[in-house]
């Protein structure tokens, strides 16, 4: 199955815990603190890979969690860092934040990487908390916990030339003749169900051709396979518009042309404005020559027309030559414009206070930080907690909300008395 859009959940690895430990000497009760730090959690990294063609993997597996850091060890041993999780995506994958819709990256070049989530920091071991006044800290820090994030992966194929046209006009046949691609070809509508890419060469000039499912009138309203696949030629530099000039299916070639143009325009005016070469295909069929004359008259030289038979190979080189000429006049494909993404740790210092009778509950990311850093059994640590509560304005806020000496304050599951 071809998948060109997926929503996945990613999470960087948690940091490993720091530990509390003391040096053991033979014959001595206890030495100094030697608890090591926890390891850092693994990052979530995306890399663009030219050998991957779709996003099917991300359709079947939607949750990706990088490895957590390991806890520290005695003897000041650092915990092992968690491995990064590297997710390969095809060229042209646009990664967006599900929540904000912002583009995080356009994976445009082979090997391009982007770190979307950074692993949690390891907690500090108790050895780190020793100082002149505190010789034997009986506490250590837990590792930093990471949040999950949802991202949208969307493939917008990168190619030089896009093939458009009604079903069954010979787009895939043409692709198979000018590139090494081997798409499915058959004499019925909607043979092609997902985009095919191929590389064509003309006297040392290479260009990438994208073949997409055929369009019909009303595609923009969902008729046939719809116009969703136009996404895969949105980033091409020019179009080759294939027309069944023989009218063997009973349609008028010029009507076909107009209908396809209308569908392109309703998807994106910019796409409809791309330079085009018209391939008047199936010229080997009896009567095609006359129809071609009529078609050219109606078209009024809006685009160059190449008379062709994809089946017999007539004029294939002529077409390639013209494509190369047009490509020389149009700018290269550019990645999307977006603000450079830099991972930022979520705001960790917010808090909210809820009042339930005489009880006040303080919640928020600040509380999580305090939980990691404060050890209630340690006097210094408690003093630190009080200082933070005062500095961050929590005490003042509590007072304003009506907290008195009778009130109970709950912070991170622990109960405190309110002493102003
Ligand atoms: N006579 C003749 N038949 C052709 C020519 N080009 C393609 N065909 C035939 O037309 C039919 C459709 O060809 P495809 O290449 O599958 O057409 P398509 O435009 O890719 O069709 P969809 O994928 O359904 O949109 C096949 O039976 C081809 O053999 C041609 O130049 N002359
Ligand atoms: Mg096809």
Short summary of the structure?
The chain has helices at residues 56-60, 171-178, 253-267, 269-272, 288-299, 316-327, 365-373, 379-391, 394-400; strands at 5-11, 44-49, 63-65, 85-90, 93-97, 103-107, 113-117, 148-155, 161-164, 196-202, 205-211, 238-244, 275-281, 305-307, 352-356, 359-363, 408-411, 414-417.
Describe the structure.
With 420 residues, this protein is an alpha/beta fold. It folds into three domains: 5-155, Spo0b-associated Gtp-binding Protein, Chain: A; 161-327, P-loop containing nucleotide triphosphate hydrolases (Rossmann fold, 3-Layer(aba) Sandwich); 352-417, 2-Layer Sandwich (GMP Synthetase, Chain A, domain 3). The chain is 20% helix and 23% strand. The protein has helices spanning 56-60, 171-178, 253-267, 269-272, 288-299, 316-327, 365-373, 379-391, 394-400, and strands spanning 5-11, 44-49, 63-65, 85-90, 93-97, 103-107, 113-117, 148-155, 161-164, 196-202, 205-211, 238-244, 275-281, 305-307, 352-356, 359-363, 408-411, 414-417. Strands 10-11-9-12-13-14 form a six-stranded mixed sheet, with helices on both faces. Strands 3-1-8-5-6 form a five-stranded mixed sheet. Strand 13 (275-281), helix 5 and strand 14 form a beta-alpha-beta unit. The termini are far apart. The structure holds guanosine-5'-triphosphate (GTP) and magnesium ion (MG).
């Amino acid at each position: 199955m071809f998948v060109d859009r997926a929503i996945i959940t990613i999470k960087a690895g948690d940091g490993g815990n720091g530990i509390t430990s003391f040096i053991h000497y033979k014959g001595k009760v206890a030495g100094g603190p030697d608890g090591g730090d926890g390891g850092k959690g693994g990052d979530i990294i995306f890399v663009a890979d030219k050998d991957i063609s779709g996003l099917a993997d991300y359709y079947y597996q939607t949750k990706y969690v990088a490895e957590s850091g390991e806890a520290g060890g005695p003897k000041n041993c650092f915990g092992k860092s968690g491995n990064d999780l590297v997710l390969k995506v095809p060229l042209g994958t646009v990664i967006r934040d599900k929540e904000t819709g912002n583009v995080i990256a356009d994976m445009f070049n082979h090997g391009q990487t982007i770190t979307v989530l950074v692993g949690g920091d390891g907690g500090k071991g108790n050895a780190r908390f020793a100082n002149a006044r505190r010789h034997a800290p009986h506490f250590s820090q837990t590792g930093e916990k990471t949040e999950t994030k949802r991202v949208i992966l969307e493939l917008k194929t990168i190619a030089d030339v896009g093939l458009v046209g009604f079903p069954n006009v010979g787009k895939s046949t043409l692709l198979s003749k000018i590139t090494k691609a081997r798409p499915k070809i058959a004499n019925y509508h909607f043979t092609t169900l997902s985009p095919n890419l191929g590389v064509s060469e003309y006297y040392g000039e290479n260009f990438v051709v994208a073949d997409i499912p055929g369009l019909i009138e009303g595609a923009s309203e969902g008729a046939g396979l719809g116009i969703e696949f136009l996404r895969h030629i949105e980033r091409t530099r020019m179009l080759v518009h294939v027309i069944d000039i023989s009218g063997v299916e009973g349609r008028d070639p010029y009507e076909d042309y107009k209908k396809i143009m209308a569908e392109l325009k309703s998807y994106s005016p910019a796409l409809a404005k791309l330079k085009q070469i018209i391939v008047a295909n199936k010229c080997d069929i009896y009567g095609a020559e006359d129809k071609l004359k009529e078609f050219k008259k109606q078209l009024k030289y809006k685009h160059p027309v190449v008379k062709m038979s994809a089946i017999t190979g007539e004029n294939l080189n002529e077409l390639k030559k013209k494509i190369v000429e047009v490509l020389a006049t149009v700018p290269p494909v550019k990645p999307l414009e977006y603000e450079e993404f830099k991972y930022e740790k979520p705001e960790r210092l917010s808090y909210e206070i809820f009042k339930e009778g005489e009880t006040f509950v303080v919640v928020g990311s600040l509380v999580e930080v305090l939980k990691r850093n404060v050890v209630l059994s340690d006097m210094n640590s408690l003093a630190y907690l009080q200082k933070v509560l005062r500095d961050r304005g929590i005490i003042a806020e509590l007072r304003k909300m009506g907290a008195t000496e009778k009130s109970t304050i709950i912070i991170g599951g622990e109960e405190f008395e309110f002493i102003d």
